[in-house]
Amino acid sequence: MRTRPLVVIAMVFAAGIAAAYYSSWPLSLIGLAVALAGVVLVLGLAFWSDGRGGPGGKTNSGEGNGGGGATGWSFLPGPLAPLLLAALFFFLGAAWGRLDLAQKRSSLLDDLDTYLDLIGRVTEEPRVYKNRTVYVLEAWEVRQGDRREAVREKVEVSVYRPRGEAHGADGSGRAENGTSVGTGGNSAATGPPYRYGDVLEIHGQLELPPTARNPGEFDYRTYLARRGVFTRMGVEPENVRLLGHRPASPFMELVCTAKARALAAIEGTLPPREAGILAAILFGDQERLEEEDVEVYRSLGVYHVFAVSGQQVGFVLLLALALARVFCLGAWGRFFLGAFLVLFYMSLTAFAPSVTRAGVMALVGLGAAAVGEENDSLSALAAAALAILFWRPYELLGPGFQLSFLATWGMIYLQPLLDDLLGFLPPWRRYLTATLAAQVAVLWHTALYFNIVSLGALLANLLVLPVIGAVTVLGLLLLFASLLLPALASSLALACGGLLYGLSESLAVLAGTPGVVLAVASPPWWSGLGYLGLLAALPELRLRRAALRPLFAAKRPALIFVLGLLPCLVLTAWRLAPGRPGILEVVFLDVGQGDATYVRTPAGTNLLIDAGGTPAGRKHTFDVGEKVVLPYLVRRGVKRLDLVVSTHPDADHLQGLFGVLRHLPASLVVLPPPSLFGQGYTEFLTFLCERGIPYREVTRGSLLQLEPELRLTVLHPPEPAPKDEAAGNGALSGSRRPDNNLSLVLKLERGEISFLFTGDLEAAGMTELLGACTPHDLKSTVFKVPHHGSPHGLEEPFLAAAAPRLAVIQVGRNEFGHPSPSVLRYWQERNIPVYRTDRDGAVTILTDGKKLIIRPFLSTL
């Protein structure tokens, strides 16, 4: 087997960086390990070169280099030297990662939640969204009254457009009706965005970026912190003032100008949908993509076309070689011309991991050709990884880096095996096996990051690759034409748009085919190690197939069948695997100012109690159910909800259920009698009937025996009398908030442990319930504090009857003062721990019926 030391070095260096980010090893200890490994290696080198077995010296047999005795590192046991070398680079990687973390400290944390002025320069190309333009500002100075303080820190600034105004597709600030808005370039939001190198003065309030608050969520704060951005500011256009233009790099100024002209040609010619897709393919600008296209491309496993990588760089390299031939350049001339064009294109994409990987591999190949050496693809891939990790070690943890390198590794390492197995197909099979190798290599990571396995990925990629190849060639010609011949650039954009329209429509039809895309739970980390280890072992078996030749020759069909069946069996077991055996899991999700609780029973039954929503009176339209609750359920592998509970029709409890039930089937929905709430449930009941989802009205005394040792009892509201139904508000119609006081109150019991879910119950409902139930009925272990900790839910006799061991408050940022200080004081005076989703994130409680395990998400990171 060919020795590739660079591959080993890259692997252990990356492992060291990962250890640094995921462990708490002190930098001093890592430095000591580096020093010790280095000293031993230096001593080994000294022994190796002073005649004790090194080149030119004498070996133990009296011969020089090439003799039959000890061959270097004579004072070390045979395998110890390479192990020490690996240890050295591992600890070097760990030290590099810790140094990177040590540098990521903010000097602006004392200025959070205060208004100030920032002076700084735009250091990256702006990202334009429908309602805002996002800049990365290198802040130079903080001004606050008479205070003037010099700083050197990046801040993310979002400049929001006024409601009703939208950026034109060409970035011109045209409103949806085509009229001009803004101040002709002096406003970041309504005119052309400020550009790279502009010096701005921004007035606003610093805040921390949002962090993950539920298990498995994307952590935007960590994402930005790894890039040296720790704070952000959201402002209106009038709070931004242009002070001048001072680009840090003339080269980057040229790059940004060229890209701006190309985007103007694209967005001025094509509809927004096709313009967004073309911009993503050429430059990796994914913020212009429509959500429907993102979902289709991602579900079919072809989202990689938006991560600029090898295909685009390959065409840039072909262009460079063609120009070199025209101008009769020699080997080094081809190298420098190719290097310039590749670096220029890498700069256009802001040096994204995928394009940087492809670019470094291209440069290694050009360099090998220039010096007359053979290019080794795996070594070039390792060199690309080392280059990126030396420059940006945090990229190792990003899905873009991992998916790009794994796909390339698959095409280099796994394709020969697949080509051998499918040798009975015609020569065109190489296109098939290259695509298949890449898909197999990223399968586990696709499940991890996107929770899907696409059975149509192979077909979709075979459909996509030729079209994307043609679009890439035309797009690169468009890029250069936009600088010299704008009319030609518009014609090329139209050609690209036609191809992309046909491609997107075809993919949408394929994605809509039942069974093409499978939703899967996020796999555990150890399964990834096993999967990648198996993939790495298979080609080694191929290399040693002399001993296995009879199996390959005589039983090739059987082997192909087994290798194809194995992933199917693993996938089936994975999809059907139950949760923790014998454990009841209750997760109080963080959905902001609202309630959503997921319950998984020991037998794998899935329950959802409410799903959050936007509180009444708020203007934003963020769909908590579709954007927060549904992704969590998908990550958990939920394919069907066995029971859905709506406690009452307030928007911050009910609204999210629409988004969840549009995508997940449900066996049964239970809710209180809709007649008690007037028209509150009308829309929801219509929605259930349209989708054929059965529902059942429940009142006090209803019992749902979920499992032999698990039951859900309805304690409230009472069965309405006929006159109450006619009145529409039941017996509690005269209370302060009838809808809240008619909330479902549920008690979930397993063994000695019980959970009391109280909805938005207030004092009147608590008093009625206290008089109707026995103390045993209300006694609970875990108490969901009613109405987000409102003071109207502080009915002490009721709380005393519940007598829980711990309390959970589901609450977010709000204008109501929730949770009330009086409510918090009540629990503190009784030494009962209180978990709050606004402070602790999601709160997960596990029980076997006797003991409790509490895991607040933000306290376990």
Structural summary, described in words:
- The protein has 861 residues and is of the alpha/beta class.
- The protein is built from 28 helices and 24 strands.
- The strands form four sheets. An eight-stranded mixed sheet has the order 15-14-13-12-11-10-23-24. Strands 16-17-18-19-20-21-22 form a seven-stranded mixed sheet. A five-stranded mixed barrel has the order 1-3-4-6-5.
- The longest helix has 28 residues, at 457-484.
- It is globular and about 95 Å long.
- The model is unreliable at 48-76, 166-191 and 725-730 (pLDDT under 50).
Average pLDDT: 82
Helix/strand-derived category reads alpha/beta
The profile of the biggest β sheet is:
8 strands, mixed
Count all strands and give the number: 24
- Counting DSSP H or I runs of 4 or more residues, the number of helices is 28
Strand content: 15-25%
Please compute the radius of gyration using only Cα atoms: 31 Å
> End-to-end distance, in Å?
42 Å
- pLDDT < 50 stretches: 48-76, 166-191, 725-730
Assign a percent range to the helix content. 40-55%
Globular, elongated, flat, extended or rod-shaped: what is the shape? globular
How are the strands of the largest sheet arranged? 15-14-13-12-11-10-23-24
Topology at a glance:
Blueprint (H helix, E strand, L loop, with lengths): L4 H18 L4 H23 L30 H24 L11 E8 L4 E2 L3 E13 L2 E14 L37 E10 L12 H6 L3 E7 L4 E6 L4 H18 L4 H12 L7 H9 L10 H17 L4 H18 L4 H19 L5 H15 L7 H23 L7 H22 L1 E3 L2 H28 L1 H26 L5 E3 L5 H19 L1 H10 L1 H21 L7 E5 L7 E5 L5 E6 L12 H12 L7 E3 L5 H11 L7 E3 L10 H9 L4 E3 L5 E5 L2 E7 L5 H6 L10 H4 L3 E6 L2 E5 L5 H10 L2 H4 L3 E3 L11 H7 L3 E4 L11 H9 L4 E3 H4 L2 E5 L4 E5 L5
Parallel strand pairs: 4-6, 12-13, 13-14, 14-15, 19-20, 20-21, 21-22
Antiparallel strand pairs: 1-3, 1-5, 2-3, 3-4, 5-6, 5-7, 8-9, 10-11, 10-23, 11-12, 16-17, 17-18, 18-19, 23-24
